[in-house]
Amino acid sequence: MKTLSTSNCARFAAKPLTHSGTPAPVWLTALNDQPVAPLDLTECPGLVVVAPHPDDETLGLGATIAQLVAADVDVQVVSVSDGGAAHPGATPLDQKRMEATRQHELRRATSILGVSPPVSLGLPDGQLADYEDKLTDLLVEILDRADVRPWCAATWRGDGHPDHEAVGRAAATACARTDTVLLEYPIWMWHWAIPHDPAVPWDRARSSPMPDWAVVRKRRAAQCFRSQFESSAGSPPVLPTYVLPRLMAVGEVTFR
């Protein structure tokens, strides 16, 4: 198992979402100049995708999930948090409504990707670091349950969001305990990092293929998360308009 990534939460906090972050054209130029090595999906016997929040599985690996499903590879999505803390300062009732909304959006999105209904662990959104040991044990149980040892994909341990990093650490520990191949997918790295950033393990980076049909399916699945991408009651979207186009542009990169 690779060594633990250093946390980048301070860097993400210093570049909030009100700042557009590193633009997609800057990333595309760098990725064109120094392409990332390909990830061979034909080696994957099955995949457990661990997402901190409902939408991370789609934003990070939606096209990869669609391709594996089309190749008759078993994919299971594990959604860790309840997703209720998307709006800071929301009342308990509003949080419950948001939880129900996001779970509905998640079921629609994973259906579009061709995956069976996700496993929702329901841990508190925004507090996942407090449940890291519990999450590790739950992931060990899930990985041990499979007849054939699957790979496990989780958010990168250095992604910058506290929940993303906590899930990444828990998945890394669970994979070490079960001798499981770990893939780490970044989401917020594309916002706060820059090309050739020394905080990013580029030597471990692998790029999944992105055929047109899989990109279309990923985009359709992402559009299910209306609670995150559309304004509500005069409030701006939880995820600014530039987030999805940038993720679609850079493709799907994992650290192996």
Structure notes:
The structure is a single chain. 44% of the residues are buried. The protein contains ten helices and eight strands. The model has no long low-confidence stretch (mean pLDDT 94). The chain has helices spanning 9-13, 24-33, 56-70, 92-113, 132-145, 162-178, 189-192, 212-222, 226-229, 243-250, and strands at 37-38, 47-51, 75-81, 119-123, 151-155, 182-185, 205-207, 253-255. By secondary structure, the chain is of the alpha/beta class. Helix 4 (92-113) runs antiparallel to helix 8 (212-222). The radius of gyration is 17 Å and the shape is globular. The strands form two sheets. A five-stranded parallel sheet has the order 4-3-2-5-6, sandwiched between helices. A three-stranded mixed sheet has the order 1-7-8, with no helix packed on it.
